[in-house]
Design goal:
Number of strands: 14
Largest sheet: 6 strands, antiparallel
Strand content: 15-25%
Number of helices: 8
Length: 331
């Protein structure tokens, strides 16, 4: 019998209470790997050089320079291993399993040494968490539930696909869809092209205010997904503007299950509302579009310039490789 392909089977359940212990381990592991990427890559606007990216199998650093060579580190959540590869053909693995952060940190260091990669000299302590335990001193063995990790990866993958579709309609400066290991969220931002006011808001725990100044140096409207925390034990999608224009809190958005959270200054859409919708992707896309619409209009963004597109029959247009690499969009 053919599968019904029900939406609730495609977007799996993601209860924070079930995931939280494994989530802590993953959070710390991605911080170790993310800090390596931050140390090895040149600074890019808004810290984009530090983030990880979703792959069909997990998360990746993408290419990182190591002198005249290159390194890439991938989390593989299907074979449950951390894979390190170099441009010289070197390969090393760290098996993902119940283990302490200290053991993971040590094994990653050993893998780098095995590959002949110079010590990237990271700051070996976590950030954006209220309790800071240096990686080498975090000796508690944390669980690693393979099935729950794969569920989380499935949500990141499906979220990435919807966010990529949403990002494609914007002609202005926009970030990649990227995984921020500090907050453990997948996010993307659109920019108006104007500088933002001096940032005077709060900062995440154990994060220098300079980090926030760089992150919010220009006006933006951002959206993302995160699996929850002890303070907010629910997976959510979010959307916010920085700076927030007057009237944003009272704006009408879609779907009806989304709402404004004043204490956080952002719109929230529970993951469960998306997962159980008749069309989860369309429900999420409506949230992204409607929150962008109200924030851009209230913020006075030049939407005609930022969203204008050339209409064409792309099926009969030459491919970029036959058109000198030219894009079909006007800039």
């Amino acid at each position: 019998m053919a599968s019904t392909g029900r939406a609730v089977d495609i977007w799996p359940p993601l209860a924070y209470a079930e995931l939280k212990d494994t989530l802590h381990a993953l959070h710390m592991w991605t911080q170790v790997v993310g800090k390596i990427r931050l140390a090895l890559t040149p600074l890019m606007n808004h810290w984009w050089n530090s983030t990880l990216y979703v792959t069909p199998r997990g998360l990746t650093t993408a290419l990182m320079p190591t002198g005249s060579d290159a390194l890439q580190i991938d989390f593989d959540f299907l074979d449950h291993e951390l894979m390190l590869v170099t441009s010289r053909g070197g390969r090393a693995r760290v098996r993902l399993r119940p283990m302490s952060v200290a053991d993971f940190y040590r094994e990653v260091q050993e893998a780098l040494a095995q590959l002949g990669v110079p010590d990237p000299r990271i700051l070996p302590v976590p950030v954006e968490v209220p309790v800071v335990v240096p990686f080498a001193e975090d000796l508690e063995v944390r669980p690693y539930d393979r099935e729950r990790v794969q569920r989380l990866h499935a949500v990141l993958l499906r979220t990435q696909i919807v966010f990529d579709r949403f990002r494609a309609d914007f002609l202005g400066k926009a970030s990649p869809v990227q995984f921020f290991w500090g907050g453990f969220d997948l996010a993307s931002a659109r920019f108006s092209g104007r500088r933002g006011p001096a940032y005077t808001g709060g900062s995440a725990p154990n994060v220098h205010i300079h980090v926030m100044h760089e992150a919010y140096s220009h006006e933006l409207i951002a959206a993302g997904f995160w699996p929850g925390s002890e303070d907010v034990p629910e997976a959510e999608f979010y959307s916010y503007a920085m700076p927030a224009p007057a009237g944003l809190a009272k704006a009408t958005i879609r779907p009806t299950s989304a709402h404004w959270v004043g204490a956080r200054g952002e719109f929230i859409l529970p993951y469960e509302a998306v997962r159980t919708a008749a069309d989860p992707a369309a429900t999420l896309l409506s949230f992204l579009q409607s929150t962008y619409d109200v924030a851009a209009d209230l913020g006075g963004w030049d939407r005609q310039l930022l969203e204008e597109r050339v209409l064409c029959d792309c099926a009969v247009m030459p491919s970029p490789s036959h058109a000198g690499g030219a894009t079909h969009r006007r800039r």
